[in-house]
Structure formats: structure tokens, C-alpha cells
Amino acid sequence: MGICLKDVGIVCNIGQSKQAVLKSLIDGNANALVKDTSLPLTEPQFVGHVALNLDDKLKAPSSRHSSRNNQLAYHAFKQIESSFSELAKNVDKKRIAVIIGTSTSGIAEGENARKTLAQSEQYPDDFHYQTQEMIAPAHFIADLCQATGPVYSISTACSSSAKALVSAKALIEADIADIVIAGGVDSLARLTINGFKSLESVSNGKCAPFSQGRDGINIGEAAALFVIHSTASGIQLMGFGETSDAYHVSSPSPDGSGAISAMELALDMAQIESKQIDYVNLHGTATVKNDEMESLAMHTVCGNDVFCGSTKGMTGHTLGAAGALEAAICWLLLSDINSNNEIPANVGYEQQDSNLPEINLSQGQKVSSLKYCMSNSFAFGGNNLSLVLGK
């Protein structure tokens, strides 16, 4: 059964449409990460902030839907609304599902409400606790598209929204749903900005994936939503590999075994060889340990000929939305709007780390063909997922 990623809507710091995001990717936008002084408790941090006036463009049906997360999701949904409506016009609403990966949901709204409580001894009148629930963005999207089939969220840190795509494939293949809106959304919040700082995982400047002097991540925000259904035409979710090495709560297994298995399982399901992959979007957080592990995994599975790189030097690490955002980036590269077969550079790269296994980091170039892409998402607890997309 073919699982088609019919359309995608994207909102992130490098663009708020497919065309804008692709242009930024190909141009190698190195200026999209901006310094923020309002969220960090100590020194400013570079973040991937969505510079879009969201506040007046979403008329939430109730206070439980009023959050920046849902504002981002709303703009992504509007980009796929016509494609979805065309597919759904003769489909029972009970056969339409929504699966959203997230890690922040409405945490920022909870933080602001708690601040008001501390100052005035009462919560704001428009604050609703349900805003913070992990399922909130899934409920919001389901309300927008009137889906009454399975509706749920997945929260497994950085692999959350990649898992949402895999779960969509499972629902369709099990004949539980005919159409699934799946993807991810996460917004900036003090909890994540300062939480990663406390883990000593945040870069002092802009992140530099796979570079000698890399020193950590930059946090970003994004929404990426797919319309997924069963057909053999269009860009396909061809394979996936899920593993859990459970090496450490916040560090990957240094031998790369979990990542290697995930990549190999995805290739096996897609029934292709590693040399057929045209581009791999690496998890590439620019932390010391992730890039050590992932370069080893990439070298083991694909050698040093397959083009690869991290796009987090442009978008930042969008946490629960990262898997869907980076799958969406692969979708854009495979789509007809990428008429020149270009792939993005590994932005932020400064100096080769001689301690890392050799891999073929993209410098932003045209390739002879773009038929297959892989996207890696490796989360806390060794929760690993690789996707293979193809046309």
C-alpha cells in the first residue's frame, strides 16, 4: 500500500510557506537565528523565532485553544486546507484522524499565567489549563477539520512528530483511517530555553553542526503538518526505523548502535540500498555527543559518498516539531518546486572535526537527481527514528 504525503504546510523562522522555506534552505540562510533576551534567565541566546504577527489572525473558538502553539499550527493548516478539503469531501469524518507531535503545547501560556498569579493572586480570566495539555494542538486541528476519528498527540521529545507520521501510516494500513493530518508543532518557552541551558547543551553563539568548535544547540519553534492518505502516486513515506537504545536519559549511545539500527530498518522497509539515498537530513544538533554518535552512524550505514547535513543551523532545534519539520524539508527537496534538484548546505559549519568519521557534508549544491531522502530524529532516552521519503 502506498502512503502518500499529499501536501505539507510549514511555518518556521526561515519562512511561512513552502516556497519561502525552500528558498531560505537553498540560499543557506545563516541569519535566521536571532538573539533573544526575554526568555533566558541569564545571558541572551540565539533562537529560531517565527517573526510573524500571529496574535490577530487566529480567532480561537474557546480559551482552551488560545496558545502560540495553536497559532503556529493554524497557519500551517491553512496551507494544506484546500488539499485536505478536496480529499475529504466524500470521506466520513470518522475516517479522518489527527496525530500531532509536541513537547511544549501551551507551556508558554502556563508560564505567563503563573506570573500573573504571583503578581495578582489570581490567574488571567482568559487562561484555561487545557491549553497546556499535550493533546491540545491535536484537538485544535481536529476541530478545524471536523475530524472525529482517532485524535491524539505524541510526546517523545525530539522524535515526537516523526513518530506522528509513522503512526499515520499505521492507521491507514490498519484501515482505521482514510486520511490523517499528521505533523508537529512546538513554540518557544522559558522552560525549554532555560532547561537546555541547565543541561549545558545550549550554544554560546549560533550552533555549528559537525564542526570542531561546536558547543550546543539553539532552540527554535515551528509547525509542519502533512495531509496523508493511501495512494501510490506522489511523495511517499516509503520506510521507517524505530529503535530505543535507552543508554542514558539525555545522551545518545556513543557507539551509534540505536541510530544505525533505525537507519538500516528504514532502508530495509523502503527496499532500497543506502547508496540510493540522495540526501540525508541529519538530526545534527551541534552538541558534542550527538554529532559524534551520528557521524559514526552515518558513516557506518552510508559511507562517505551520500550527501548529508543538518538544517538546524538555520531553523534551530524545534524539539517536538523537529521530526515533521525536517521531513517537510525532505518533502520540499523531492517536490516539483525544487526544479533545480538543489540540496541545502550544512549551515554553521566552520572547521572539520578530525575526530569525527568522514561523512559527505553538503555545501549547498545541485545534484544529478533527487529521488530518495532520509530524515533522522534522535531523542532523549535513545528514542531513535529514521524516515525514508521517495518519489
Automatic annotation (TrEMBL):
Assigned keywords, A-Z: Transferase
CDD domains registered for this protein in UniProt: KAS_I_II (cd00834)
Pfam families referenced in this protein's UniProt entry, alphabetically: ketoacyl-synt, Ketoacyl-synt_C
PANTHER family (alphabetical): BETA-KETOACYL SYNTHASE (PTHR11712:SF320), POLYKETIDE SYNTHASE-RELATED (PTHR11712)
Recorded metabolic or biological pathway in which this protein acts: Lipid metabolism; fatty acid biosynthesis
A GO BP entry: fatty acid biosynthetic process
Gene Ontology MF annotations: 3-oxoacyl-[acyl-carrier-protein] synthase activity
Domain Ketosynthase family 3 (KS3): 1-391
Gene3D superfamilies given in the database record: 3.40.47.10
Origin species: Pseudoalteromonas denitrificans DSM 6059
Top-level taxon: Bacteria
GO cellular component, one term: cytosol
Family affiliation: Belongs to the thiolase-like superfamily. Beta-ketoacyl-ACP synthases family.
Descriptive protein name: 3-oxoacyl-[acyl-carrier-protein] synthase-1
